[in-house]
Amino acid sequence: MPPKLFLAILAGAAVAVVLVSSRPKAVDEVALQAEAAVLTKDFGASLLGILKGALETSGPEGAVDFCNKEAPTIAEGASKRSGWKIARTSLKPRNPASAPDEFERAVMTEFVARIAAGEPAVSLKRAEIVEHDGQRSFRYVQAIPTAELCLTCHGSELKPAVAAKIKQLYPADQATGFRAGDMRGIFTLRREL
Ligand code: HEC
């Protein structure tokens, strides 16, 4: 190979290296979405498991206490183990600490419109890279449909003792008046990139 050509190739390679390294880190979005979907499934199953167990052993009032203590603990544990931030949120939160951020609010507003247009809540999800204040994160959101079971504590006609317990623990509760099939909220997962 003539030396000039060799040098030109070298220079070209150097430019390519600079271009590649100055680009944001390559992200395997498909793998991240798959991982988030599995984590969501596990998280949802744990919550449903403790909810059903608590309803059986302590009745709905006792189960309110249980959700109050255990739901945040389960979310924290799942987050610590996985390196993701795993949580639930809602446009009508019960726990004010679970209020949505801008991204979550926008996605939920869109989901509500799609459900009103006939899509089933259970099919709705979204995965996206979001940049906020210079920090990029991978975000995964999945709708949580309201089932019959949920109406005991999130429906329109709560037993007075259940309503009183909720009022006592969550004076600012907004999470009643749902019907089966409504979107109760979303699972929301986030991983910094
Ligand atoms: C025994 C009462 C009870 C039942 C039944 C119940 N929940 Fe809840 N739910 C709660 C309580 C209490 C909280 C607040 C937990 C906390 O402090 O984080 C809550 C919080 C939530 C949240 C988090 C956002 C928010 O509003 O704070 C979602 C989402 C949710 N529930 C969905 C459901 C779904 C879906 C079902 C049915 C599968 C269900 N719940 C059944 C009591 C209940």
From TrEMBL:
InterPro entries: Tll0287-like_dom
Residue ranges occupied by any Tll0287-like domain in the UniProt entry: 66-189
Lineage: superkingdom: Bacteria
Protein name, as recorded: Tll0287-like domain-containing protein
Native source organism of the sequence: Rhodopseudomonas pseudopalustris
Lineage, highest ranks first: Bacteria, Pseudomonadati, Pseudomonadota, Alphaproteobacteria, Hyphomicrobiales
